[in-house]
Design brief:
By secondary structure, the protein is mostly helical. The chain has one domain. Helix 1 packs antiparallel against helix 2, helix 2 runs antiparallel to helix 3 and helix 3 packs parallel to helix 5. About 35% of the residues are buried.
């Protein structure tokens, strides 16, 4: 079997474990996220998706941050994090989208001019919006799943285009599971309110 395809398969398995565990709010998701990101850094650089490769370096850092943030209020069994699900105000999202869109244009232009990236603007958009969505996920902001639904949908096209077919199929699963993740976290959010736990809007 081709070495890169083998890495894709390993990345797929690890990625699915990460997705299942984060939907369940299980703190061990971050370990699988770190491992999957290490694999993806190598694969994306090999296929000239440079910003996506850099993004996964950030994912590695985010994995350590997520583990630390969730473990601050962990339950005794060290599995399900006791960090509450929160919601962002609409104006926060508006500012976030405007800033990310502007950064996409700038970074996409620089990538087109100074690299051999075949899809500089799409690569830039996926990377920059993913940076932001990962932070929301680590902070357990409910709307992170909405961003991931859109981002994963875009990644399907990008990955098929670069021949990363296994990762593209994984992104299809991610896109569908983003809906599941949203519903699961929404249930947690509603239960917090029902049980009198403060579900703040940051």
């Amino acid at each position: 079997m081709d070495f890169y395809k083998l890495l894709e398969i390993i990345g797929l398995v690890v990625g699915l474990l990460y997705l299942i565990l984060i939907i369940k709010e299980n703190i061990w998701c971050w370990i699988f996220g770190i491992i999957g990101s290490l694999i993806t850094v190598f694969l994306y650089f090999h296929t000239k998706l440079y910003l996506e490769s850099i993004l996964n370096v950030y994912y590695i850092w985010a994995g350590f941050y997520g583990w630390w943030f969730w473990s601050k209020e962990k339950k005794k069994d060290l599995e399900k994090a006791n960090v509450p699900v929160v919601m962002w105000r609409p104006n926060y999202h508006l500012v976030k989208i405007i800033v990310c869109a502007a950064a996409t244009i700038i970074v996409g232009f620089l990538m087109k001019k100074y690299t051999d990236s075949p899809r500089p603007y799409i690569d830039a958009a996926m990377a920059i919006f993913s940076f932001s969505a990962t932070y929301l996920e680590a902070r357990k902001v409910l709307s992170a799943w909405i961003y991931w639904f859109v981002i994963n949908g875009g990644s399907i096209v990008l990955q098929f285009d670069r021949g990363l077919n296994i990762y593209a199929y994984l992104s299809i699963v991610y896109t569908v599971m983003s809906i599941v993740g949203y519903l699961q976290w929404k249930k947690t959010y509603d239960n917090q309110n029902f049980n009198g736990i403060l579900s703040k809007k940051e």
